[in-house]
């Protein structure tokens, strides 16, 4: 039976992550908490808006309401990457060789591996940002589509158009697809080789959480009373295919998803704080945590795929040991 080690904090958890085997919880007030031989915390920002782990899993990239972008290490060290006035840093991304991207308003910046800072202006506000898995390439989610940039090279960006507001972006692990979350309760995707569109609609709520399975065969998403898992098993991805629905509950919406590190298993967090694990192959489910005080906002598996760090909108966070 799975066991839960709770960590009761005050406030909205923006991101739960593992740094060097230590669970971290970044809160909207700007504090980052960790369970490392006891509860410890550090003040990273005056108001936190976004946080993601670096590719090597050793640091957390954070963006704040104070216009700063920082790297938080597993020992609690906070290093400032950039400060851009009093702009709100509403999106951050971590890339290869220590590259970091962040956005505020209509501008995206990329801190390149050589330490130089590249500024990229856009005609509309940048809502989401993501690095491709291969090469130094970023995608920016914007109004009416997404834009692909090679920030270290000269040349025109690639514009991917689709009407509506796009709020987040993610590349498939093989780099063949780009998927965006939309304001209008849908996902949209592009097959990058030929620009083919993938419409992934029918959600009753906005998709706020997306997670790729370890081999990139599935994209799990929130925004429905089940985790909606789209198949990317063939060269055309989910075009013409129905998704697998995992952990269907009529009484609570899925608010966060996190795919296992090696297996096609999804941790599913709900609006009432419950957490389930579902296996895509046969839709088998295991209860990991009973309902709590607030909606699950973020989850992350550790490197071994045995423990899950989770956070909620009310601050009741913790670690689930799946093996018990």
From TrEMBL:
InterPro entries with a match to the protein in the record: Apc4-like_WD40_dom (IPR024977), Quinoprotein_ADH-like_sf (IPR011047), WD40/YVTN_repeat-like_dom_sf (IPR015943), WD40_rpt (IPR001680)
Protein name: WD40 repeat domain-containing protein
Domain of life of the organism encoding this protein: Bacteria
Coiled-coil ranges from the UniProt annotation: none
Transmembrane segments: none
Domain Anaphase-promoting complex subunit 4-like WD40: 262-322
Organism per entry: Neoaquamicrobium microcysteis
Pfam families listed in its UniProt record: ANAPC4_WD40, WD40
């Amino acid at each position: 039976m799975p066991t839960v080690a709770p960590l009761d904090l005050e406030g909205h958890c923006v991101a739960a992550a593992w740094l060097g085997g230590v669970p971290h919880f970044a809160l909207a007030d700007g504090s980052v908490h960790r369970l490392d031989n006891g509860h410890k915390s550090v003040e990273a920002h005056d108001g936190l808006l976004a946080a993601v782990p670096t590719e090597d899993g050793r640091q957390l990239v954070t963006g704040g309401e104070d216009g700063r972008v920082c790297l938080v290490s597993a020992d609690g060290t906070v290093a400032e990457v950039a400060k851009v006035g009093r702009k709100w840093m509403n999106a951050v991304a971590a890339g290869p060789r220590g590259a970091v991207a962040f956005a505020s308003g209509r501008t995206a910046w990329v801190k390149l591996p050589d330490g130089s800072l590249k500024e990229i202006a856009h005609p509309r506000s940048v809502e989401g940002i993501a690095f491709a898995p291969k090469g130094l390439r970023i995608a920016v989610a914007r109004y009416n589509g997404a834009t692909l940039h090679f920030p270290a090279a000269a040349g025109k960006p690639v514009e991917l158009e689709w009407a509506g507001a796009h709020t987040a972006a993610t590349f498939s692990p093989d780099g063949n697809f780009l998927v965006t979350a939309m304001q209008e309760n849908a996902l949209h995707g592009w097959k990058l080789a030929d620009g083919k569109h993938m419409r992934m609609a029918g959600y009753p709520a906005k998709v706020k959480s997306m997670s790729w399975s370890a081999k990139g065969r599935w994209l799990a998403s929130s925004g429905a009373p089940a985790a909606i898992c789209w198949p990317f098993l063939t060269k055309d991805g989910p075009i013409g295919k129905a998704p697998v629905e995992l952990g269907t509950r009529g009484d609570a919406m899925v608010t966060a998803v996190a795919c296992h590190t090696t297996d096609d298993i999804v941790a599913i967090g709900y609006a009432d704080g419950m957490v389930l694990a579902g296996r895509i192959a046969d839709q088998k489910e295991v209860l990991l945590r009973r309902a709590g005080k607030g909606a699950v906002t973020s989850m992350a598996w550790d490197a071994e795929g045995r423990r899950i760090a989770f956070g909620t909108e009310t601050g009741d966070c913790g670690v689930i040991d799946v093996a018990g």
